[in-house]
């Protein structure tokens, strides 16, 4: 296997076995966990964000963190609906943050792209597991 094929397999693995699908699903769980913790942490600890966000929006962000924890549990239980909802919620949160604060730079942008890829892997994994178990 060439180096290019190894790189592509890491970014977009083939889900030809149930074990590979479970591993892809775990990436979705990790993405939801990171999103939930990151949302809650940013809402609580950042003075800059507290100045930008009203109390109503802070309450919304805490609710959003709770939704991501629920999505994490759903993906852990191999729910296809939870995987798709988590991906859509993540896109909505990213759009909200970009509209409110601006486009992130550096590590924040890298983290968003990685989480986006992990949510997609979670979707792929849950659908593949459903296909294997039929």
Which key phrases capture this entry?
single chain, 134 residues, mainly alpha, 6 helices
Describe the structure.
- The protein is mainly α and 134 residues long.
- The protein has one domain (25-132).
- The protein is built from six helices and no strands.
- Helix 2 (18-45) packs antiparallel against helix 6 (107-132).
- The longest helix has 28 residues, at 18-45.
- The two termini are 32 Å apart.
- The mean pLDDT is 85.
The span between the termini is 32 Å
Helix content: over 70%
Count of discrete structural domains: 1
Average of the residue pLDDT scores: 85
Q: Radius of gyration, Cα only, in angstroms?
A: 16 Å
| Weakly predicted, low-confidence segments | none
The helix/strand class is mainly alpha
Globular, elongated, flat, extended or rod-shaped: what is the shape? elongated
Number of helices: 6
Secondary-structure element string: HHHHHH
């Amino acid at each position: 296997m060439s180096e290019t094929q190894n790189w592509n397999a890491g970014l977009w693995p083939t889900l030809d076995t149930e074990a590979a699908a479970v591993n892809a699903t775990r990436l979705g769980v990790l993405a939801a966990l990171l999103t939930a913790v990151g949302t809650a942490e940013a809402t609580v600890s950042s003075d800059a964000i507290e100045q930008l966000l009203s109390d109503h929006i802070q309450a919304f962000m805490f609710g959003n963190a709770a939704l991501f924890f629920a999505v994490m549990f759903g993906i852990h239980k191999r729910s296809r609906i939870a995987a798709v909802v988590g991906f859509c919620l993540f896109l909505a949160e990213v759009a909200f943050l970009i509209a409110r604060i601006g486009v992130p730079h550096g590590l924040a942008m890298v983290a968003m792209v990685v989480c986006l890829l992990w949510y997609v892997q979670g979707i792929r994994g849950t659908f593949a597991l459903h296909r294997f178990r039929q």
